[in-house]
Amino acid sequence: KEYGVNELRRMFLDFFESKGHLKMKSFSLVPHNDKSLLLINSGMAPLKPYFTGAEIPPRRRVTTCQKCIRTGDIENVGKTARHGTFFEMLGNFSFGDYFKDEAIHWSWEFLTEVIGLDPNRLYPSVYLEDDEAFNIWNKEIGIPADRIFKFGKEDNFWEHGAGPCGPCSEIYYDRGEKYGCGKPGCTVGCDCDRYMEIWNNVFTQFDNDGNNNYTELTQKNIDTGMGLERLASVVQDVDSIFDVDTVRALRDKVCEMAHCKYHESDEKDVSIRLITDHIRSATFMISDGIMPTNEGRGYVLRRLIRRAARHGRLLGIEGKFLAKLSETVIEGSKDGYPELEEKRDFIVKVLSQEEDKFNKTIDQGLGILAQMEEDMKAAGTQTLSGADAFKLYDTYGFPMDLTKEILEEKGYGIDEDGFKACMEEQRTKARTAREVTNYMGADATVYDEIDAAVTSEFVGYDHLTDQSKV
Ligand code: ATP
Ligand code: MG
Ligand code: MG
Ligand code: MG
Description:
By secondary structure, this protein is an alpha/beta fold. The protein has 2 domains: 5-235, BirA Bifunctional Protein, domain 2 (2-Layer Sandwich); 244-459, no CATH class. 46% of the residues lie in helices and 16% in strands. The chain contains 16 helices and 11 strands. It has helices spanning 5-18, 48-52, 100-114, 131-141, 153-156, 228-235, 245-258, 266-287, 296-314, 322-333, 338-342, 344-379, 386-394, 400-409, 416-433, 446-459; strands at 22-23, 61-69, 86-95, 122-127, 149-151, 157-158, 163-174, 195-208, 214-227, 383-384, 413-414. Strands 1, 2, 3, 4, 5, 6, 7, 8 and 9 form a 9-stranded mixed sheet that branches. Helix 9 (296-314) crosses helix 12. Mean pLDDT is 89; it is low at 435-470. Bound molecules: adenosine-5'-triphosphate (ATP) and magnesium ion (3 copies).
């Protein structure tokens, strides 16, 4: 049966409620008392105090559907079938209560019995030293040994420095040959979109003393995460997370505004998917009170909005469109997130104002670039300096590919190495300016990801024809 996104969310939460879990609503995208994280990027992240014991959970079994943002995935957005900067993560959690046995059995029960996925298309992976998990899959669930994949620390061990850590077991779904990369050896673990990772079960059972001496924890925890859009894409048997019912409605709206059809051209499709994703992130961020600014979360939001606006221009959309588009996001997701409906007017207003600002930025940037061209002419050079290119981009927010496009038309180039050096310098400054704590696996690298993600697209303009770069 083909379940919709909103239906699947409810089925998951109901299922784990029936297994004694307390349903909790999604936490805000803005982390609470956690300086190591810019934006919530997993179901587990807002529950950290319960895992460390800093706070007592309302119940030892909890289930959530958490809105997540992963800017570290921004380069993949529009290109893979499975990555968005925004997605929803379904999760069941045990704080010193049940462990591996229940977690694995329930994940299997949910996927094969409740949802009715074909067991022959599902493949689990385990950490290679985790015989316990292997045996549960093999002996108790009955999956043949050659269908269970054993991976090393890099893939199947969850750890961030000292503190609680442990092996994980992931569940992959074979979407069929047509999604494969066709390379020899393409199987579970391949980076292509055939064997799609849908669910990660983390078993925190050890404490790392910081020198890789592991001791067994007395309180063992379960932390799982399954991408709702990915689950829906396999249940609905569609190409990507951009084709599941709620997201597709949004994608269609983008096409309607651009007067084009999906699958008209690969280049346009990337822009369409990118806008579809970024407007989801932006809408949810604003509903959680984040405003477009020039630093931190606000900067991420501003970049996402402007990147979407830029791709709207590439698609030939005239005038403002993002504010209107956010209404479709709200319609599609208000079922799970009533705050969207409550903040509707606010969201629309913030987006509309930011689009106005962006349009002004473009006009201003064009003026400054024209002046730089005059200066280049006077100096008799054909190359815009890295510092000037960076100033346009960083101070005036002018999209880099636009600078390049305009200059190239007139036979000018850009000192790309100089530009990269300026970028690197700024990144280093930002890195040292921030406070990074490592609090139980808090993603200490997330700021670096943000910097890289938000800026690399501007650095990476070696690929001139790559329209996904802003
Ligand atoms: P991948 O290897 O495909 O990038 P991951 O291993 O980084 O996924 P986890 O950190 O294990 O993902 O997160 C748990 C689950 O959340 C994944 O199994 C997947 O279903 C979902 N997920 C992770 N990243 C994304 C994303 N960018 N967009 C949509 N869903 C995601
Ligand atoms: Mg990933
Ligand atoms: Mg993975
Ligand atoms: Mg994973």
